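Hello,

Our lab assistant flagged a job as stuck in the queue for most of the afternoon. It eventually completed. Since we weren't sure the result was trustworthy after the delay, we are filing this so someone can double-check. Below is the sequence as submitted and the structure that was eventually returned. Let us know if re-running is recommended.
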Amino acid sequence: MLPKLQRLLEMTEVPTLQRAKTTWQELEDWAANQGLNPRFLSASQLANYQACPAPSRVLNALRWLGKHLSTNWDLSLCVGRTKEAKGRHGIGAKQAPTAEPIMFRALQDSLEASLRGDGQVVPALICLWLVVMGCVRLGHVQRSEWVKISTHSHNFVCKRGKQKDQRQGFMWSCPRYMPYSQTDLGLWFLHQWTAHTNRRRMSQPCRCGTLVRSNTWRCC
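-- returned structure --
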């Protein structure tokens, strides 16, 4: 693998690579049906392709591909989704839907049941738990590293923010113990960190990085 390409893959997050791969494969299929070369498309041809059910995802992926693959695409006619939402929530709405208390209790019950059972869905439930208790976006959870545990909390570092002009990393935390039952989630994190470290055969303690893969929702 070329050194430049290898560095690019190492620096880019998995979700970004997945979106780029999906978009490129779709573009290749579309161009083949049109008898076109995907590397040499005009602005109007790209706009016709981008007018699909996922225009925002496609536009961001095309920008990334154009920047790193030197395709010289003209994306001036491509636009993201701008349609206002018909209801109070969704794209174009001013307020995101609010989780109800009963939903929070259902999440806790499901997480505790999975911890007592086979634990196959624990990673996914843990991520949702961190979103609720850490007051962070799911994308931030996926980018975060678990760096410290104390007697009362978990501490994480998110490598970068979500907004384009505010990419600085930040620290955040959430409670170690679950309310009502006082279940210690620290035990699960410590178990996963130990298993992760042993698999990598590291000779000294280190930060574990994200314990859950964002593409499979399984432990690393």
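-- support follow-up --
The delay was a queue issue, not a problem with the job. The result is valid. Residues 101-200 form one domain. The longest strand covers residues 144-149.
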